[in-house]
Specification:
7 helices, D-amino Acid Aminotransferase, Chain A, domain 1, four-stranded antiparallel beta sheet, alpha+beta, 252 residues, 13 strands, single chain, nine-stranded mixed beta sheet, 2 domains, D-amino Acid Aminotransferase, Chain A, domain 2
């Protein structure tokens, strides 16, 4: 890989982390759309056609020892001084026949050492992971499973690896992109359920008070699916709606 690679020199780059299940990448069309849209947003001269990139993805999968279920990760970086894009693909085995169940519900906390603020690229899944690393280290120090990041207004944005939702009665709420969160694949799928479910799914600013008064809290991620949260700051939550939405997503 060239020493002019901007990923190494400046940290500029994009990441897609995908679930491989039964030999197929789940939500592959959505992942590819996000990757190419993000590349255009950052001004990357992405010369690789989607079909060629997908061929490379499955070629990498075929070279793993257990290609049926796994995590596939692609990183793309622009080279300096030309229009070329470098990319790295890897696949690691994963025994995950269905998405995570309620018995793996999480205890999370609210990060205090870093902010995730909105700007024109905050919703992109980039190689810049420093805020998430700092928050994850804080989670480890406090024996949390994950940490929720807040923005400059003290409102909930997302976790270190997932989007966040809260349940208030029949409403399921998640922060809008203007709060600074990444535009997650699973987040979008749940928003699309809005017209065919018993819950009203809305994008809404979520304060710490909203979080503490919620009936339920859950995290969403394209690989881990839906993970119910059972505890934040000694506040315990139910997981009923979380599991129902999880079942609906699995069926879908």
């Amino acid at each position: 890989m060239s020493g002019l690679n901007m990923g190494f020199r400046t940290g500029m780059g994009l990441i897609e982390t995908m679930l491989l299940r039964d030999g197929a990448i789940r939500f592959i069309a959505q992942h590819m759309a996000r990757l190419y849209n993000s590349a255009r947003k950052l001004g990357f001269k992405f010369l690789v056609e989607k079909e060629q990139l997908m061929l490379e993805l499955y070629r990498t999968i075929d070279h793993t020892q257990h290609p049926e279920n796994g995590i596939v990760r692609i990183q793309i970086f622009p080279n300096s001084g030309d229009d070329q894009i470098s990319f790295i693909i890897n696949c690691v085995p994963l025994d995950l026949p269905v998405y995570v169940k309620g018995d793996n519900a999480l205890t999370v906390g609210v990060a205090t050492k870093v902010l995730k603020c909105f700007d024109s690229v905050a919703y992109l899944k980039t190689s810049c992971r420093q805020p998430y690393i700092v928050a994850k280290n804080e989670a480890i120090e406090n024996n949390w499973d994950d940490a929720l990041l807040i923005n400059q207004y003290g409102r909930i944005v997302e976790s270190t690896i997932a989007n966040v939702f809260i349940v208030q009665g029949s409403h399921v709420l998640t922060p809008p992109l203007t709060e600074g969160c990444i535009e997650g694949i699973m987040r979008n799928e749940i928003l699309l359920m809005n017209t065919s479910s018993a819950w009203k799914v809305l994008q809404k600013e979520i304060s710490i008070e909203d979080l503490m008064n919620a009936d339920e809290v859950f995290l969403t991620n394209a690989v881990r699916g839906i993970q119910p949260v059972i505890n934040v700051k000694d506040r315990n939550y139910k997981i009923d709606v979380s599991l129902q939405i999880e079942a609906a997503i699995n069926q879908y």
